C-alpha cells in the first residue's frame, strides 16, 4: 500500500505562532476618566508621606512579560493607562500577575492592623464593560505576597476575545479588606486600569484518530484497505474533524 503524502502536509504542520511582546514603561497618567467602565475613587495624600504614612500606593504592575512602573497619584487616586499598548492575554494560558504596592512610609505592613493593605485585580473577561464578581484574578493579597509571588491565573477559554479592561486596586483596612468592590469609594489606597487584549486559545494539535481517505475526499476508507494511493489524515482534539496531511 502506497501512501501519497501531499504537499498539504506543509500547510497542516505549520501552526500559527502568536508572538507576545513585553514592555517596560514609566508612563505618565493618560487619563483619570474610567469611561465606559465605572469610575472608582480613593482618598489620600501621596506627599508628604508623613501626613498619611499608612496610605497604600502602587509602584509597579507586572502581567506576564508586561511591566509598568508608576508614581503615586493625587485625588482621585485613579489612573487609566490608555497610552500603553494592551496587555496580551492568551485564553487557556496560565499567566503571572504581580503588583508592587507599599505603604507611604515604605513598609509592607502597617503596625496597626486597622491599616493593613491588600491588592485586588479584576479582568473584564466577558467584555461587558464591568468587573463582575467572578472576574477576580487576585483577591486581597498582602503587599509582600503580591510583589514576590503574586498569582498564576489561567485565562478562561470562554473569555470574550477583544480589547477590554483590567483594574488593579490597593485597599487599606483591617485585618484585610474584604473583597473591595471595583467601583466603590475607598480611602488611603490607589487604583490603576490597563487595556488587555484577549486572544483566542491556540488549537490543540493532539491527534485522536488516524484515517485513510481517498484522494480529494474526506470520507474514510475501511481497513484493511486495498493497495492504492490514499491520503493520510487524523482527527484533531480541538475540532473533531479529519484533517489531511
* Proportion in helices: under 10%
Sum up the overall morphology in one term.
Answer: elongated
Biggest sheet overview: 6 strands, mixed
Number of E-state strands: 17
What structural category arises from helix and sheet content? mainly beta
Run of helices and strands? EHEEEEEEEEEHEEEEEEE
Measured by DSSP, the beta-strand proportion falls in 35-45%
Q: What would you report as the Rg, rounded to the nearest angstrom?
A: 25 Å
- State the separation between the terminal residues, measured CA to CA: 17 Å
Look at the structure and give the mean pLDDT: 78
- Helix count equals 2
Unreliable runs: 1-29, 239-245
Secondary structure layout:
Elements: E1 2-3, H1 8-13, E2 24-26, E3 41-43, E4 56-63, E5 66-69, E6 78-80, E7 87-90, E8 94-103, E9 117-123, E10 136-142, H2 143-148, E11 151-154, E12 162-172, E13 185-187, E14 190-199, E15 207-213, E16 229-236, E17 242-244
Parallel strand pairs: 1-16, 2-5, 3-13, 6-14, 7-14
Antiparallel strand pairs: 4-5, 4-8, 8-11, 9-10, 9-12, 12-14, 15-16, 16-17
What does this structure look like?
The structure is a single chain. Mean pLDDT is 78; it is low at 1-29 and 239-245. The two termini are 17 Å apart. A hairpin with a 5-residue loop joins strand 16 (229-236) and strand 17 (242-244). Strands 6, 7, 9, 10, 12 and 14 form a 6-stranded mixed beta sheet that branches. It is built from 2 helices and 17 strands. The chain is elongated. Helices cover 5% and strands 40% of the residues. With 245 residues, it is mostly beta strands.
Amino acid at each position: 500500500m502506497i501512501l501519497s503524502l501531499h504537499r498539504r502536509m506543509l500547510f497542516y504542520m505549520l501552526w500559527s505562532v502568536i508572538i507576545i511582546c513585553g514592555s517596560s514603561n514609566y508612563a505618565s497618567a493618560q487619563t483619570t476618566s474610567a469611561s465606559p467602565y465605572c469610575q472608582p475613587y480613593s482618598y489620600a495624600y501621596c506627599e508628604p508621606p508623613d501626613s498619611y504614612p499608612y496610605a497604600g500606593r502602587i509602584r509597579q504592575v507586572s502581567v506576564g512579560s508586561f511591566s509598568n512602573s508608576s508614581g503615586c497619584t493625587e485625588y482621585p487616586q485613579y489612573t487609566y493607562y490608555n497610552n500603553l499598548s494592551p496587555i496580551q492575554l492568551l485564553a487557556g494560558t496560565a499567566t503571572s500577575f504581580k503588583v508592587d504596592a507599599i505603604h507611604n512610609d515604605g513598609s509592607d505592613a502597617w503596625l496597626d492592623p486597622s491599616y493593613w493593605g491588600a491588592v485586588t485585580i479584576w479582568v473584564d473577561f466577558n467584555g461587558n464593560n464591568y468587573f463582575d464578581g467572578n472576574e477576580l484574578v487576585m483577591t486581597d493579597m498582602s503587599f509582600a505576597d503580591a510583589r514576590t509571588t503574586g498569582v498564576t491565573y489561567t485565562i478562561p477559554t470562554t473569555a470574550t476575545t477583544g480589547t477590554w479592561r483590567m483594574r488593579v486596586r490597593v485597599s487599606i483596612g483591617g485585618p484585610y479588606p474584604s473583597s473591595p468592590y471595583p467601583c466603590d469609594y475607598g480611602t488611603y489606597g490607589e487604583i490603576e486600569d490597563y487595556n488587555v487584549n484577549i486572544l483566542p486559545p491556540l488549537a490543540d494539535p493532539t491527534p485522536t484518530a488516524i484515517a485513510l481517505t481517498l484522494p480529494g475526499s474526506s470520507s474514510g476508507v475501511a481497513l484493511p484497505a486495498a493497495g492504492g494511493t490514499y491520503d493520510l489524515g487524523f482527527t484533531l482534539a480541538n475540532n473533531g474533524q479529519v484533517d489531511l496531511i
